[in-house]
Design a protein that fits this description.
Strand content: 5-15%
Largest sheet: 5 strands, parallel
Strand order of the largest sheet: 2-3-1-4-8
Distance between the termini: 8 Å
Shape: globular
Order of helices and strands: EHEHHHEHEHEEHEHHEH
Radius of gyration: 18 Å
Helix content: 40-55%
């Protein structure tokens, strides 16, 4: 199974990626994680990425694609992969498709987690993270009792808000998504790869619907 999870910030891509990892035994490949790992290791690609980031620039697509190619060569990706956070625009999608075709591992499906932007804004602005264990909560949707104790670490919660979840930043993040990433929906629909899943539901329902969408992919070997 070789898929891309597509959706705006707050649509649940990270959560659903982890559920897919457990269900199918294939890795989630996050470009953010790859960048941090490469920089920490001091690899050639990592040094290129660090140089760009230290200069306040975006890491170029060729470097990111090189990291993805390197990650896909590992044994755990032999049965497939879940790309989360890449591509973000059509040029990246075209470059990714070319690379995957060269590797003989073309995409089989692109799953869009579709959610109204008003709901997304509430999800993001209400999101809080336990500083002790990383568990994610939402002050608008989580019951007060759920916020009183952490099942993961057994300690009182120390809830923090990510800087990019503040209201003044969220609008800019969604604007970037609308301008750059949303055109990918039409791009992948035209390629016959797009599967749309309603993300305005509980986690388990969304996951079941993702699996149903994946089951419609003719080339997916179960």
């Amino acid at each position: 199974m070789r898929i891309v999870l597509l959706g705006a910030p707050g649509s649940g891509k990270g959560t659903q990626s982890q559920l897919l990892v457990k269900a199918y035994g294939i890795p989630q490949i996050s470009t953010g994680d790859l960048l941090r790992e490469a920089v920490a290791k001091g690899s050639e690609l990592g040094r290129r990425a660090k140089s760009a980031m230290d200069a306040g620039k975006l890491v170029d697509d060729a470097t990111v694609l090189g990291m993805i190619r390197e990650r896909l060569s590992r044994p755990d990706a032999a049965k497939g992969f879940i790309l989360d956070g890449f591509p973000r625009n059509i040029p990246q999608a075209e470059a990714l498709a070319k690379m995957l075709d060269e590797m003989g591992t073309p995409l089989q499906s692109v799953v869009l987690l579709n959610l109204d932007l008003g709901i997304l804004f509430k999800r993001l602005s209400g999101r809080r993270i336990c500083e002790s264990c990383g568990r994610v909560f939402n002050i608008y949707t989580a019951a007060p009792s759920a916020l009183a104790h952490c099942d993961e670490c057994g300690e009182e919660h120390r809830l923090i808000q990510r800087p990019d979840d503040k209201e003044e930043v969220i609008g800019k993040r969604l604007d970037v998504y609308e301008a750059q990433t949303k055109p990918l929906i039409s791009h992948y629909a035209a390629a016959g790869l797009l599967r749309v899943v309603d993300a305005d539901a509980d986690m388990d329902t969304v996951f079941k619907n993702i699996r149903k969408a994946i089951d419609t992919v003719p080339s997916f070997k179960r």
